[in-house]
Structures are given as structure tokens and as C-alpha cells.
Write a structure and sequence with these properties.
Strand content: 15-25%
CATH topology of the largest domain: Rossmann fold
Radius of gyration: 26 Å
CATH class of the largest domain: Alpha Beta
Structural class: alpha+beta
Helix content: 25-40%
Number of strands: 28
CATH architecture of the largest domain: 3-Layer(aba) Sandwich
Length: 573
């Protein structure tokens, strides 16, 4: 059988597939290569070993002279990402309509990474001045373990060209929708770029729809959704290049409390702020909600491992004189885990902390006057967050947005207090300050006059065990909450700002890349992470993999650092 090593034609591929009909599945291997379809090139980069294995990886490259996307859609990086995002969504939708297997295993399936509500840079699609490239997978058809050549010819030589024509050619698409998609992303970038100048952590536009349909459906609530309306005292006006002037709630830097009764929208607002580090598709309801790109959600995480973290700003010497300046444990408590999560986030470059009382350790958040009277400070190693949150901002410029429903003691340290009442925000800062003045807590401040020194950690590269016997490194991502590298599983359920499984796959690959190329016995972890992110910025997500793959999605260095810190094999120092 001739091998398609050099550029061959689509007719050659069609005839070859017919000749393979009925042969053993392994004969498909000879199809690897490039095929000229006239208006595009089909690249078969990897052929699956059998019909039940991971599907074959393919790419199509459509020259811009054929694709015809106007320069205005891709000349700015944020617009090029938005265009690629739009094309990925169109291709995904097209593959979902009536598609089903036709044979053994995954025979006949065409699949591409499933996008979330966020507009993200994905390896699945790329738009340049020269061409549009799309990466996806196909299940090469078989009956049993015999090649279904005629079905394969229909799949690759008819179904794929039809998809290309429907989803990757500008004239076949809704030009106004594409422009709106790109404009929305550019507007969000513009809004986020104005936060610092306006001394803001986040901005929530008037008219935003924050509630979601359910805990497993991130689309906006349609029925009875309440449109967001900012209180006049906290209303700011920002400018978008396409939407023009936009008004909304500006949460200033410093310490902000979000208070209110249960089920009135406190956590819903915080969740919108969390994911505001990403741009969102039009009509998401949060497409004009933007947050400082280095804001991090932190929480308690019982049972996580900690490696050499200085949690002494929050936790003093433990019983039996155990030091917390280089704290390690395979099984952290709620308070030690939350302390470590905060220190690790700061180490990785966080400029704002997002905290929900519901997912925090109570003894980490507050120690009231009565408890101080009962348990003397020399018997309590924990310095509560209430006594460190102001120092974080004063000493390091790190803001905090905190959902708080159970302790008014935080009124004493808050700069801004927002009350949610039936999903409507109200500025109650003055009332909170008046209450704090009238009802003194009489609790003693703990923890000294400054936050404490932050010492960079150095991770030992050999503590990241990539081996799995004699086999090559195996990477696996399960949804957005777990990844596996070699024999080690990493629980990411507490890393709450991940929104797509492709981010987890990319993080897994980035850990391998960092261990091989950027971590040394003298390089602080933050520097190693920054170097990895710089490499991705320069060379794209492809630098993380030895082959072309369409299932990687962009992530922040903050989440990469969090994943590294969750490795149970990790050693610092």
C-alpha cells in the first residue's frame, strides 16, 4: 500500500479509502499525511490504533483567499482569539446536529473541543493573515476491527469538506454576528484595561444578567432574571470602542464586603466577579462584567497537601513547637489549607483575593471577643483573617472582596459594604460604619502591626514525578476538577476559576514543560511559572506538546501555580 507522505489529492484519498475497505484496522496508519482538497488542505496528524481508541487527530487549513475573513476581524490579538472562538463554536454546533456512530467504537464521529461561555484562546482554532486552521478529531469507521472504507471516504471526503464550507468560509456565515462577537471581546478588554486607572478591582455593568440556569448549566437564566442595577454612589462610567459609554458598579480596591440575606444573590455576584477574569460571549449576561486579571478565589480545602509554605502570618507555632515558616503536611486542616491557599496565590502574583464565607474555615475568618476571653492568645496559634486583611492591602496592595453573612465584626475593616437585596446591590457602607461605631465588638486585634514577610519558594524539580513505570508520561484531565500526571492525581476542585477541561489538559502539559525546561534547584516557583507563561505568549499553546493537538485551552499562571502546589509529591527548599 502506498503511503501518503507527500502532498496527495483528495481523489487519491478517496480511492485509497475504498481500496482499504475490509482490511484490518491497522492499515489506516498509512493515511497519515497531507491532502489537497483544492480550497483547503487536510492534515491527518495521528491515526488511532483501533476503533475504540482515542479518535484520530486531523487539521484543516483554509487559505484566507478562500476563507475571506476581513482584516478587521483578526488584526488585533483579542479579535483574532474571538474569531477563532466563534469558528470553534460554529464547527461544534454543526457536528452536534444529528451526528451518530456508524460502526464500531467511535466510528464516524467528528468532534471538537466544547466551548464554555468564555471566549478563550484554544489550540483548536487559529486565524492568521495567511490562513484559518481548525483542529478536531474523527473516528475512522470500522465494523468490528475491519476498515469501513466506503464510510471513511464519505466521512473525510464529503462530511469534512461540507463542514469546512459551512463553518470556515466568511461568506457562508453571518458577518454581523461575527463582528458582534469580536466587538464584544474587544469591549471587554477595553473595560478591563480601565480598571486600574479608576482604582477598581471589578466592574459589573448595568443590565447584566448574573444568575445562571443551574449549577450544571452556565448559560444565563432566562425566566424571571433580574437585570443588575448599580447603586448611584458606586456607579462609574467606562468607555468601550464599540458599545460606547457603559455604566455599572465599580468595586474599588481595598476591602469590600458583600452582605445580605440568604438567597439574595451574594454568591451569585461573587461568582460573576470570579469569572470576570475572562471575556464572555455576547448575550451571556456577564459579557460586560470584568475583573482584575490577577484576582484569585481562595477557600478552605481540608485534606490537601502543603509543601514548604510560610503560613506564619496566619498560623503561629503549633503544638510541640512545630514551625509554620516552612510548613508541610499531607493532610491540611481547614485553617491551614486556607492560609496556604492565600500565601500561594500571593506568591503566584495575585493582586486581589475573592473569598466566600460559606467555603471558608470559620476559625480562620474570625475569633470574637467571647472566644478570645475563653481561649487566651498564647493557646491559639491562628491569627484570623479579619486581623490580616487590612495589612494585606496596606503592606502589599492586595485587595479583598468578601462575601460575609455571619459576622458584622468585618464592618470595622471594610472600605466598602454592598448589600444584596433580591439580587439588587445597595451601598450600605455608611450604615455599616455607623453600626460598627454604635456596637463596639471589643475584640482584641491579633497578629501584630504588619502582615509579615513573603519569602519566595524554590520547588525541587525532581519532586514532580512524571514517570509511570517504563511508559512515557501519561496526562489525563477529568472535567475541570482533576488531572493526572503519571501516577499522581491532582484534585483541582478548589481551584474554582477553571471553566473548561481543556484548561486542565493544558495545565497538565505545562507542569511537564515547566519541570523539564523551567524549574531548577535555584529558580523560585513564581519565576518558573512566569517563564512558562512567557513561552506560551510567544510560541502559543503548541509549545507545551510534541504534536499538534486541538484540545488545549489557555489558562492563567495563577491556576498553573495552584496545580503545582497541589502535587502530593512536591518538595520545597
Amino acid at each position: 500500500m502506498a503511503s501518503a507522505v507527500c502532498m496527495a489529492t483528495s481523489n487519491y484519498l478517496y480511492d485509497q479509502l475504498h481500496r482499504l475497505d475490509g482490511q484490518s484496522y491497522g492499515a489506516y496508519k498509512g493515511l497519515k499525511g497531507e491532502y489537497d482538497f483544492g480550497d483547503f488542505t487536510l492534515h491527518i496528524d495521528h491515526v488511532q490504533g483501533d476503533p475504540f481508541a482515542a479518535p484520530s487527530r486531523v487539521r484543516v487549513v483554509v487559505p484566507q483567499v478562500v476563507a475571506g475573513f476581513p482584516k478587521s476581524l483578526w488584526e488585533l490579538p483579542c479579535r483574532a482569539i474571538a474569531l477563532a472562538d466563534y469558528l470553534t463554536r460554529e464547527f461544534y454546533r454543526a457536528t452536534q446536529s444529528g451526528q451518530r456512530t456508524s460502526g464500531s467504537g467511535k466510528s464516524g464521529l467528528i468532534s471538537i473541543v466544547r466551548p464554555s461561555q468564555a471566549i478563550l484562546n484554544r489550540s483548536a482554532a487559529r486565524v492568521t493573515e495567511e490562513a484559518v486552521e481548525l483542529r478536531f478529531t474523527v473516528g475512522l469507521p470500522a465494523f468490528g476491527r475491519r476498515i469501513a472504507g466506503r464510510q471513511a471516504a464519505e466521512l473525510l471526503c464529503q462530511a469534512v469538506p461540507d463542514l469546512v464550507e459551512q463553518t470556515l468560509v466568511y461568506n457562508a456565515l453571518d458577518g454581523a454576528q461575527i463582528q458582534h462577537h469580536a466587538n464584544t471581546a474587544e469591549d471587554a478588554e477595553a473595560l478591563r484595561s480601565q480598571l486600574s486607572a479608576h482604582n477598581l478591582v471589578t466592574f459589573v455593568a448595568d443590565g447584566a444578567v448574573l444568575p445562571r440556569r443551574s449549577g450544571v448549566d452556565d448559560r444565563p437564566l432566562e425566566d424571571q432574571a433580574i437585570l443588575f442595577k448599580s447603586p448611584e454612589s458606586l456607579r462609574v462610567t467606562l468607555h468601550c470602542p464599540h458599545a460606547g459609554e457603559v455604566t455599572g458598579l465599580g468595586i474599588p480596591k481595598g476591602i469590600t464586603l458583600i452582605v445580605g440575606g440568604g438567597y439574595h444573590g451574594k454568591s451569585t455576584l461573587l461568582r460573576a466577579i470570579e469569572v470576570g477574569v475572562y471575556n464572555h460571549i455576547p448575550n451571556d449576561g456577564r459579557h460586560q462584567v470584568v475583573t482584575d486579571s490577577a484576582a484569585v478565589k481562595v477557600r478552605a480545602e481540608d485534606g490537601r497537601s502543603i509543601a514548604g509554605v510560610d503560613i506564619s502570618p496566619f498560623i503561629g507555632s503549633l503544638p510541640q513547637g512545630k514551625s509554620t515558616q516552612n510548613f508541610s503536611t499531607p493532610n491540611a486542616s481547614g485553617s491551614t489549607s486556607q492560609a496556604a491557599n492565600i500565601i500561594e496565590a500571593i506568591e503566584a502574583g495575585a493582586t486581589a483575593l475573592l473569598v466566600d464565607e460559606d467555603t471558608s474555615a470559620t476559625n480562620f475568618m474570625i475569633r470574637d471577643r467571647r472566644m478570645q476571653a475563653l481561649i487566651a492568645k498564647d493557646r491559639e496559634p491562628i491569627t484570623p483573617f479579619i486581623d490580616k486583611v487590612r495589612q494585606l492591602f496596606t503592606d502589599y496592595g492586595i485587595s479583598t472582596v468578601l462575601v460575609m453573612g455571619g459576622s458584622g465584626d468585618y464592618f470595622d475593616v471594610a472600605d466598602t459594604v454592598i448589600a444584596m437585596d433580591e439580587f439588587c446591590p445597595q451601598d450600605v457602607t455608611e450604615q455599616a460604619k455607623a453600626i460598627a461605631a454604635e456596637f463596639k465588638t471589643e475584640r482584641d486585634r491579633e497578629g501584630g502591626q504588619c502582615f509579615g514577610t513573603l519569602i519566595p519558594r524554590i520547588i525541587q524539580p525532581d519532586s514532580i514525578d512524571l514517570s509511570q513505570g517504563k511508559r512515557s508520561v501519561k496526562l489525563r484531565a477529568r472535567d475541570v476538577d482533576q488531572l493526572q500526571i503519571g501516577a499522581e492525581a491532582i484534585d483541582l476542585s478548589a481551584v474554582e476559576q477553571l471553566v473548561e477541561p481543556g484548561q486542565v489538559r493544558a495545565i497538565a502539559a505545562a507542569i511537564v514543560y515547566a519541570q523539564r525546561y523551567r524549574m531548577t534547584t535555584t529558580t523560585p516557583l513564581a519565576e518558573a511559572i512566569a517563564a512558562v507563561m512567557a513561552d506560551i505568549a510567544q510560541s502559543g499553546l503548541d509549545c507545551l506538546s510534541d504534536w499538534s493537538t486541538g484540545d488545549l485551552v489557555s489558562f492563567r499562571g495563577l491556576e498553573l501555580a495552584a496545580a503545582v502546589n497541589h502535587l502530593r509529591s512536591l518538595r520545597a527548599g
